[in-house]
Amino acid sequence: MSLYGSFLSDEQFQCxxxxxxxxxxxxxxxxxxxxxxxxxxxxxxxKVCQCPLCKKTFQKRPDLQIxxxxxxxxxxxxxxxxxxxxxxEKRGGSDSITTLFSPVTTSLASSVPxxxxxxxxxxxxxxxxxxxxYYRSSGRRRFxxxxxxxxxxxxxxxxxxxxxxxxxxxDRVCICPVCETEHHxxxxxxxxxxxxxxxxxxxxxxxxEIQEMIRQRIRKxxxxxKSVIELGRAVERETAGSVCLFSALVSAIERSEAELMxxxxxxxxxxxxxxxxxxxxxELEVEELRRRESALAELAQSxxxxxxxxxxxxxxxxxxxxDWSSVSxxxxxxxxxxxxxxxxxxxxxxxxxxxxxxxxxxxSALEPSPVRTQPRMKRVQEYALDVTLDSxxxxxxxxxxxxxxxxxxxxxxxxxxxxxxxxDRVVCVLGREAxxxxxxxxxxxxxxxxxxxxxxxxxxxxxxxxxxxxxxxGYWFLSLRDKSKYAFRTEPSTDVHLNLRPHKIGVFVDFxxxxxxxxxxxxxxHIYTFSDTFTECIYPFFSPCTNKSGKNEGxxxxxxxxxxx
Length: 565
Prior knowledge:
Elements: E1 25-27, E2 33-35, H1 36-43, E3 49-50, E4 57-58, H2 68-83, E5 86-91, E6 94-99, H3 104-109, E7 136-137, E8 142-143, H4 150-153, E9 166-168, E10 173-175, H5 177-183, E11 189-191, H6 192-200, H7 203-301, H8 305-316, H9 336-359, H10 376-381, E12 398-400, E13 406-409, E14 429-430, E15 439-445, E16 452-458, E17 475-481, E18 485-488, E19 494-496, E20 504-510, E21 515-520, E22 525-531, E23 538-543, E24 556-559
Antiparallel strand pairs: 1-2, 3-4, 5-6, 7-8, 9-10, 9-11, 12-13, 13-24, 14-23, 15-20, 15-24, 16-17, 16-23, 17-18, 18-19, 20-21, 21-22
Helix pairs in contact: 7-8, 7-9
């Protein structure tokens, strides 16, 4: 029988260990063939030798020899596969290699054992043996663990050293053919490729779902960012509105307090004046009555009866006098009107506060509340004084502008005459204008500076060496330190708490009252008033403080006074 037309697949010449065509094939006593090197390495280090396919155990390691006949057939098969006529025929749902052999194969077949894969070439060998466990054929698929191309990329089962190419849907694991035979016989199994092709159809849907989830989260991120921005705007709006509202209230209360003090002081002075006048009149009447009393006493001691008779009628008649029974000092302080006005103002403030609590501050309207801003601001601005700096008093490090309206601290001392009126230790300068009476007001721009001193100083102050800047030593001024710490320079210092940082300071002096007041010009808010007694001329006082390596290099600028409403 001719072998032309016999069909062989390459798995019949494949080592089940290395999954490649035999190299120096060797057969075990149980009839299975492997590469000599593969089976030797497989048994190395094992106490008991087993066949990798049928698991037959050999108590003693077999002494294997190369099956020369199978090696010759394998080599001829390899050469024919590479250069002979090779075709592919569809069998049972899979591709198997179809090879047309030459007649020389007939003479080789008779020398091959029946259990050898090449026995299928013999015309008298009978029906072919059943396929090994690693070869499966069914209505759904036909596959092998061989294949020159696929065997290179297939992962290998760690237990059976076979290619993993089956997927068990029951257990959701990828397995090799031997695993399927031993542990997954009744399970729903398919090739990994088929399972992936089925799963791949769901890939688009999964991608779309993920993309939609990404889009939702990106939208949420933008929404959160917008919320944060809006929250920031709301904070700015609330801050501006609340500062405006409460500053106006504080200003109104301070104004009412100042007016109250002023009215009570005026009432006290009026009462004192009234009392002084009444006391003077009473004292005159008492003096007249005492003269009458003394005359009557002398008359009683007289022996001149004629004189006594004539004089007594005159002395006994009471002098003209005022009825003091209903007279008293006026005790009305005149504060009722101010209290009523303040009560009405607080009531309006409470009403506005309720509206704000319910609706918040509107974004488009941050106007001051109905509580009026400091009206005394305009009143003191009426006493504007054109102040200029006196260069003869300036510390050598101070740099004055040509118009003598601004001063800053330089880095070096300038060569200036050490005249008696010049400060040589404290970086400060006085104004030229002496104040010895009346009311006076000026404004100084301080924005951007971290430290400064502003106020007044008396003419006789010590200007050399270390100076104690307190009212006792002739200094009355407000200070800023470290950009946020405000204080009036007393001993110890009096802290001044400001809600709004002023960019321009107004200084007001009432010489007769002995008052030095400070105002936040932009916010129209009274900051602080100090009362003392001025016994000599005083001068405007300015100190830009040291420049602190450029952090406080900005100047103090005397600006024109613009009357505000």
